[in-house]
Amino acid sequence: MGRKHAHTLIRDLPEQSFHILLSYFHMLEKLNLGTVTRIEVDRDSRFNLFVAFGVVIRDGTFLKGQYRGILLVATAQDGNGQCYPLAWGIVDSENEDAWTWFLTQLKEVIGDTDELVLISDRAPSIKKAISTVFEKAHHGACAWHVAQNIKNKFKCADIMGSYWSTVNSYRCEDFVGYMTEISHRYPRVAEYLENEVGFEKWFRCHYPGLRYNITPTNMVKSLNSMLVNARDFPYVSLLDVIQEKMSKWWNDRRIVAMAITTPLTLSWESEFRPRFAQSNGRHTLQLNPVTYHVKCSELEGVVDIFNKTCTCKEFDIDKLPCVHAIAAAHHAQVSVYSLVSP
Q1: Which of 114, 192, 122 is nearest to 153 (CA)?
Q2: Residue 113's closest CA among 29, 47, 210?
Q3: Do residues 180 and 190 lie in contact, with contact meaning Cβ atoms separated by under 8 Å?
Q4: What Cα–Cα distance (Å) separates residue 164 from each residue in 44, 141, 198, 216, 299?
Q5: Integer Cα distance of 69 and 65 in angstroms
Q6: pLDDT tens string 216-235
Q7: Model confidence over 44-74: pLDDT tens digits?
C-alpha cells in the first residue's frame, strides 16, 4: 500500500494519465520532429495507443499498472547492428484486431515494399495481421522462438546445436546436410520445421526477402527487460521513460558515430577486417571481366563483382563481401568497400 501511495505522489493517479494523453501526444509531436501519435477509442471505451518516435521485429509484453494492457513494440536494426525502436503501442489485449490496428499505424510510418522484412514469433494473431496489413513485405519466423518451441514441444534440447547450424547455413547443400541429421535423430522435429514452420520462413537460403544477418528477436527481449521496472507506471509516465531512454541512446550513438573514421560502422568493420587477412594468398583466376574463381583449402567460390554474388552465398545474403569477394576485388583492383551494400 505504501509503495502504491509513493508511486501516486511521484507519478500521479492512472486516471490523470488518461486525461492528459491528448495534450501529451500533442507536445510530443510538436517538440520531436517526425514523431507520429495515434489514439483510438472504441464503443466500449477500450483504447489503442500508438507512438513512433522520429528494421522490423515485433513482440508484446504485459503491463502491470491499474489498467493493465499490452505494450507492443516494433524495432529495427541500425547500421551498427543495434536495436532501433520504430514504434510503441498500448492495446487492450494481444489479439488479431490489436495487431492489425498497430501494424496499420506502423505501415503509415514505414510504408510497404517487397524489400521490407518483418520477423516475429509464430503467434497466429501476428501472422494473420501481417498478411492483412503488409501485402508486399516478406514475413519471417523468429529462429529463437522456433528453437524454444522445439525444446518445449519435443523435449529435445540436445538437437539445438544442429538446429542453429541449420539456421546459420548459407548454402542449400549445407542446409540439407544438417536437416538430414535432424531427420535421422528427430523425424518429428524435421517434419515440424518443414511443414508447420516452413523452410522459407527461417532458413537463409530459402528466404525470399533481404533478411541480411537478422535472425532472432532478442532485441525485443532486451527492450522488454529495459522496461521491467516501468511496466506498472501510468501510461504517460511509461512513455516518458521510453522517450528518455531512447533520447539517451540516440545521443550516445551520435557521439560514437561522430568519432568513426572507418568506411563502415564499428560492428561491421570489426566483422569485416578479419576477412581481409583470410583473403590473403587466395589463388584467384579471372574468368571474364566481372567473374573470378577464388580457390582455397576450405570452400572455393565463384564471384561476380558486378552483381555482388558468390557461390558461397555469404556475399549474396549478408550484402557484405565474403573472403572470396575480397580476394576477387584485390585482383580486379576494385575497392572492397564499393562492394558493400549501401
Answers
A1: 192
A2: 210
A3: no
A4: 46, 14, 16, 11, 20
A5: 8
A6: 555 656 676 777 776 777 77
A7: 666 677 877 653 444 544 444 444 678 888 8
Amino acid at 181: E
CB of 318 closer than 8 Å to CB of 329: no
The three cell numbers of residue 187 are 523425424
Residue 186, all three cell numbers: 528427430
Q: How far is CA 210 from CA 137, 179, 337, in A?
A: 10, 23, 20
Strand order in the sheet with 83-91: 36-41, 47-52, 83-91, 70-77, 57-62, 117-120, 138-141
SS3 273: helix
Beta bridge partners of 89: 50, 72
Angle 143-154/160-167 helices, nearest 10 degrees?
A: 150
Whether the Cβ atoms of residue 319 and residue 309 lie closer than 8 Å to each other: no
Instruction: Give the pLDDT confidence score for residue 41 in this predicted structure.
Output: 74
93 contact partners, CB below 8 Å, separation of at least 6: 70
What's the confidence (pLDDT) of residue 331?
93
Q: Which three cell numbers stand for residue 231?
A: 511496466
Beta bridge partners of 310: 303
